[in-house]
Amino acid sequence: MEEGELVKKCKDHDASAQKELYDKYMDQMYRISLRYLANEAEAEDAVTEGFLKIFSKVGSFEYRGKGSLTGWMKRIIVNESLMVLRKRKHLLVDIHETDHKLKSIDGVESNLQEEDIINEIKKLPKGYRTVFNLYAIEGFSHREIGEKLGISENTSKSQLSKARASLAKSLVKIGAV
Amino acid sequence: MKSNKENKSINIIDRVCQNASQVADRVNVDISKKKRLWDNISQRLSDLDKRVLTWFLAMTTSFSLLIAGGVELWKNTPEVIPTQRELTLQVKTIDTSEPIESFEHALTSELKAKKQPSSINSLIPTTTILKGTEIIQTKQPEIPKESHKALQNIKPQIYLGTTLSTVGLTPELGIDVPVYTKSTGKHTHSIKTGISAQFLLFGQRKATEGEQQVNNTAIPSVFANLLYEIKDNSKNSTWSARIGYRLNNNNDTSIYSNHTMKASLHKSINNHIKIGPEVIFTNNFRKVYPGIGLVVSS
Fold this sequence. Notes:
Chain A has 177 residues and is mostly helical. Helices cover 70% and strands 0% of the residues of chain A. Chain A is globular.
């Protein structure tokens, strides 16, 4: 089904269209969330809440051609992931997930180089990782990041700088750069 | 100012990570996990539908109650609300050029004619004076007697209720104690406090030797309640508004979790049965669940 048609049917609360939308984009949305949260259970929560929000707010979404739907969904998932991060803020001990192996549906491991790079991003401290993901991967400005995270632009810049410095060392170490 | 080498290094790091993310985002998620998440999402979506249905039911009940209340009001004789001008002393001035006996006669006949059934008129003090200073008659207002009963009639009321919400029926057992009662003849206003326990019932599935067993469990939530009741003495009908705050925060359930409050409005059907909408504000007042409450009291 075409994206536009899919959106239209989701607006009509068509259950099969909702399932199709989920099947089509769930993998991508889950991976995005996992980049922020570095914890599978939390990423699952964020994706669940994110898709519920997508289905409830699709009525107000205006389809403007290819890419607009993915961009809109990504923003919702990123916001939900940040929400989960905010809830976790008060926890004294950060939850560490050991098994971050990215496996494809048939069990064949994905490109090791990419997997290692993503794992290095996930190893960054929470603040560095969040700002790096928002700025370098998603393309938000420091002002937008400041608004989203409730921090100043300068804090965002310094967190990014530290994230890059840390990544530069680790990426050299694994031979990615 | 950043050197070119530094900028180049930054660009490489960002680009490498962007490319890695694009590749990683395309990797499929384990199919069982994907299915499990979809089951969860579709369950939540159907819960949402149920909530919409419950809202509809709650609103229908509220609307019916409002209509019922409205019909009662229409049946009542409309009370004449006196204006400010009417409430000021009604002063009657008599020309002193006429003989005093004729005034008295005229006044007596006029007072007889003015004997109106309205209770409002009896409230207005009427003073008749002669030109000058002589007062012939002053009629004092008849103020209806009000009775205030504070902590006099402490008769606890035990009730059994149930709320229909998105999680089904949740029975409630409680007790109310009147702390203040005021009767104005037509209406009786009461304030009551009380405590109640609301039970969330659900079946826990357990697999035992290949067979599935369902164990019914009841999780209690204890509420401290404050109730305001207004009773129409002539019709013996009662409207009551109740708010309750959940005291035990240890037994969290889907509908009663963290800080929870509930508010309800009940209309009596007879002396012992009340019905009305109920709204539950739960999860630190972030989630709202509507419901319909039915109360049977002693």
